[in-house]
Every structure is written in structure tokens, then in C-alpha cells.
Amino acid sequence: MQSRTRQELQDLVRQQLQVLMEQKNYQGAKALLVPVQLADIAESIGGLPEATQAIAFRLLSKEEAIEVFEYLDPSVQQTLIEDFKRQDVQEIVENMSPDDRARLFDELPAKVVRRLLQQLSPAERDATALLLGYAPNTAGRIMTPEYLSLKENITTTQALEQIRSLANLRETIYYIYVTDDARRLTGILSLRDLILAQPHQTIGSIMTRDVVFVHTDTDQEEVARTIQHYDFVAIPVVDAEQRLVGIVTVDDVLDILEQETTEDIYKLGGVESGGDNYFQTNLFTVARRRVVWLLILLITNSATAAVITNQENVLQKVVALTAFIPLLIGTGGNVGAQSSTVVIRGLNTEDVRPHQALDIVRREAIAGILLGAMLGTVVILWAYFLQGNFFVALAVGLSLLSICVLASVSGSALPFIFRAMGLDPALMSAPFITTAVDVLGVLIYLNLARLILGL
């Protein structure tokens, strides 16, 4: 049997599904999806033309539809909600897990959210309102209240009986949380520990009392890093009174890490995503978000023009100097972008700590000297070959050395400064560093040339 990658299988299913839907062969389409994983079904439906997505979704059984809906992209979820009858929507949204429902509601217009909330049962409405009541991008907003909790005075036999009766209603049963009468978190044990324990042992005698947890207001990125650090499947969330209110599971963490990484990459490129899918955002909104950064960079770049204008007499006397300006500012911008990128990524992954700032900047300064020395030597030889003027070549080479050191120091130091100011280091992105180095690089170059050439 020929083996295929996951992507190849998804593409094959999507193509076959689209053909069957175009032929209106709904029985064939339904049979095609029977052996397919739910996540792949969602991927296939999401890849269909918008007009046929709702029809394909209706081919699923009620149980499959509820689970597949949670895997769908938010934009596809919104499309389906608009196409469905009220009863269809109510059943799907009612049976979604509270954290997935809250995430969906974050993407929907307020008017639609109010209507859907009114249709929920009181219990599900309260669970959803609880999550929506916490600040966005916090543990409280992304947690699920569907967890297993027990009292420490019951036996392992009693605990297993309770788990059997509640397992289908809980997000995960791999961890069991122990609480007191006030619902305060007192311990934790794994399902493995419970199974291996003697029938007469109490939960209190086998549980771990040293529990790692997060608070409802903990930033979601910190939650993700904690789960990643400890290799947890889930982590408990407590409120200000240490009461257990929910758990965050590893599948949510994967989504968070992807989201945060995407945001950082956008910021590094000087693009604000606004938390939306860039490629599904209205073009006017895209232009509005991008033009802000570009206007800032445009205004900043005007300083470069001012420096060149101020040193116009130098360039008029030695026109050859003009030819090397793009080379110098381009190299300086690239060196600064490299330094800022590695430092910003290191801060985000916690490979670099704020107290290491001086060591990191010193290390990057040395790297800048080495890079400048190597590149400067090559440039001196190249400039002399092109212009035949040793002093011009020397001015270019020494300027490149100075610019590389400046770019390395500024590119590594500014993210730390932004972090100390409580700002996202990713804002100190490559375009900003490049522009700043452009201005200072030209200033250094023309003044060094004036000095070396005796102008």
C-alpha cells in the first residue's frame, strides 16, 4: 500500500470531496468522510468553496458535527453559523466545550454572540459567561471548567467509581485534582498513580501536595511556557482565593504558541496583525495597519536625507563617496536586524533573561567588531579596486567597522530596553533597527570621510 504524508492525504480527501459535492453525489461524499479523522474532515470542509461548506457539514452526524466544528477555522465557523438554521446552531454551540465556545464567541460579532448566549442552557450560559468575564489572553479566558476533582478522604475504589461516571463530561481525566470543601486546590494525582494504588488507600495518602498552578489573570504565553517547561498535559487554574476554577490543556497551549509566534513574526516585519488571520483580513484594514509603521519609518528616513544634505559639500568634493552609501547602510541594517532578531527570540523563549543584558550586549559588540573587521577588509580592497583612491577605500572600510559595532550593540540593547519599559521587545523590529542604523551610519561615514580626506 502506498504511504502518503498527512498533507497529501488531506489534499486528496479535499479534492475528492469537492468533486463529489460538485456532482451532488452526497452519499458518496458521506461515505468518503467515514474513515477520515475529524481534524482532517474539518480541514477538507474548510478548503471547499464557501457555498458548499454548509452542505458538506450537514452530511456529518450530530456527534461528528459537534467535534468537527471545534476544529474548523474561525472564519469557516462564522460562515456556517450564518448559513444554519437557529436550531442547528443551538445544538452545535450547546455541545461545544466551554473554552472552544468562548474562543468562537471572541471571533463573532457582538449581536450574534448575544443571540447565541440566549439560546444556551443556563449551565452552559454560566460556564461561557464565566470565561468571557476574564481578560483576553489570560488563563481564565482560555481555560475549561470541565475538570475532574475529588476529596482527599475518599478511597481509590470510590474515586474510580466517580471517574467512570464523570469521564465523558470532562475535558481530560489524566490528572485528578483534589480540593477541600471550599474548592481550594490541595493536591493532584495522575490516573496512573490512582490505578496503581491499593483499593483501601485514600486519595490524600497518594496525592502530591506540591502543585504547580497558574492564576486566572496569568498571561496565556506564561501559561504555555509553564506547561512546556514541566511537560504537563494540563495545568490547574485558581482564582484569587486559591479556588480551583478550571484547567488549561496542552492542545490549547499549541494554539497559543502558534498565535504568539505569528504575532511576534508580524511585529518583526513591522506588520500589526490585530490578532486576525492576515490573509483573511480586509485589504483596507491590512493597508491601514501597515501604513502606520511605514509612515513612522518614512519620517525617520527623512533624517538620513537631512544628514546627507548637511554634508553635501563633502559629497561634492569627493563624488566617489556617494557610491558606497547604499552598501554601508544596507550592511548595517542587516547586522542590526540579525542581533535584534536573536535577542527578541531569546527573550520570548526565555533562553535569554533580562539580568543577562550586559553580557549579551557585550557579546554582540564583540561579534560586531569581528564582522566589521572581516567585511571592512573586503570592502577596502573592493573600494580601492573600483575607485583607485586608498583614502576613500579606508573611509569606507572604517565606517563599515563602526557601523557593524553600532548595529550589533543597538540591535541587542534596544529589545532589553523595551522589555524594561514594559513594552513588547518585538516592537523593536528589524525595520526600526534598520532605519535607525541608516541615519547614524550615514552620519558616521561622512564625518569619517571628512576626517580621513582632510575636507
From TrEMBL:
CDD domains (alphabetical): CBS_pair_Mg_transporter (cd04606)
SUPFAM superfamilies with a match to the protein in the record: CBS-domain pair, MgtE membrane domain-like, MgtE N-terminal domain-like
Keywords, in A-Z order: CBS domain, Cell membrane, Magnesium, Membrane, Metal-binding, Transmembrane, Transmembrane helix, Transport
Primary location class: membrane
Transmembrane segments: 291-309, 321-344, 365-385, 391-418, 430-453
Topology term for the membrane: Multi-pass membrane protein
NCBIfam families in UniProt: mgtE
Family from the record: Belongs to the SLC41A transporter family.
Binding partners and assembly: Homodimer.
The protein's role, per its UniProt record: Acts as a magnesium transporter.
The protein's name: Magnesium transporter MgtE
Organism of derivation: Chrysosporum bergii ANA360D
